[in-house]
Amino acid sequence: MRTITTIGIDLAKSAFSTCTVDASGRVLQRQDLRREAFSMWLAHVPAGTTVAMEACSSAHHWGRRCREHGLEPRLMAAQFVKPFRKSQSTKNDRNDAEAIATAARQGNMRFVPVKTIDQQARLSEHRIREGYKTDALSASNRLRGILAEFGVVVARSDAALRRVLAGLDALPIPASTRLALHGLQQHWAASRDLEATCSRRILAYAREDARCRRLQQIIGIGPLTADALVASIGNARDFKNGRQLAAWLGLAAAVGAEVRSVRSMTRATSSSEVAPSTTRRKPSSASTRKPLAMAAARSSRCVARRTTRSSRSASMRRISMIAMRPR
């Protein structure tokens, strides 16, 4: 009997597709399960089995459930799983489950750490706050737009909008529109109040967490950013160095392509100087200096970019060092 080593699971809200493979990568079993049946089936999987999933909605919840049953959850980004799908044109749950199981067996695959309940709770607070912030901004823009239709132009600040809305009954606006604006005003004020409530809770978290207090020692990082970093990163030792953390945040750009292009242009320019001319005409000094000046300018810009990015990388190294300190 072949031993189960890896299980790939294509997650969904109510229907789950599983693909079980052995140590050689041969598919042993495929199953389509409903949510309740999947939860019971997971409890009977042999302990120590690798359970691979895409890092999508509810993946961290199921990762914690796997750990409760003694399993080894492996979460991967969806873009890393896509190349292992046998048919790029035929996408279905079963093909996705097999691709997830195949991707999880790769030795150089990068996995996403499973977030704790505390991390997800704090990140949810940030998402809810951003939702209230977007609602408030949309409501204020609608208020300004409707008032502008009746010749009432309001400045961009919230204080100016409040002053105008305080005298809404005196404005030359139809009664029906005035009634609708009162309701929109209440929605705007409620969104602002809820956003402020979320901000106060996040600030309280940041004051209590020693890691957040250490991160706030860096210039430009306040309590909101510090709490979001701690909640998103979790254990900073998952990153090898500050540059890897910067790349995860999207701050480290690919400079290799720019360096290669500058070097190739410099080689092409130098080769054109020593290559024999087909027309036996000596190039003028101006035509010779122009490509060199362009290459030098590009090289200096590239060095400036690399210097800026290295300073960013140094900042991210400092962030990772502070975040990795014990509480």
How would you describe this structure to a colleague?
With 327 residues, the protein is of the alpha/beta class. It folds into three domains: 4-104, 2-Layer Sandwich (Nucleotidyltransferase, domain 5); 117-234, no CATH class; 236-272 and 286-327. The protein has helices at 35-43, 59-68, 78-81, 93-104, 117-149, 158-166, 175-208, 210-215, 223-233, 242-249, 256-274, 285-324, and strands at residues 4-10, 15-22, 27-34, 50-54, 72-76. Strands 3-2-1-4-5 form a five-stranded mixed sheet. Strand 1 (4-10) and strand 2 form a beta hairpin. Helix 5 (117-149) packs across helix 9 (223-233).
List the helices and strands and how they pair.
Blueprint: E1 4-10, E2 15-22, E3 27-34, H1 35-43, E4 50-54, H2 59-68, E5 72-76, H3 78-81, H4 93-104, H5 117-149, H6 158-166, H7 175-208, H8 210-215, H9 223-233, H10 242-249, H11 256-274, H12 285-324
Parallel strand pairs: 1-4, 4-5
Antiparallel strand pairs: 1-2, 2-3
Helix pairs in contact: 5-7, 5-9, 7-9, 10-12, 11-12
Order of strands across the main sheet: 3-2-1-4-5
Estimate the helix proportion, in percent. 55-70%
How many domains would you count in the coordinates?
3
Distance between the termini: 48 Å
**What is the number of E strands?**
5
Low-confidence stretches: 269-292
Strand content: 5-15%
Note the overall shape: elongated
* SSE string, helices as H and strands as E: EEEHEHEHHHHHHHHHH
Secondary structural class = alpha/beta
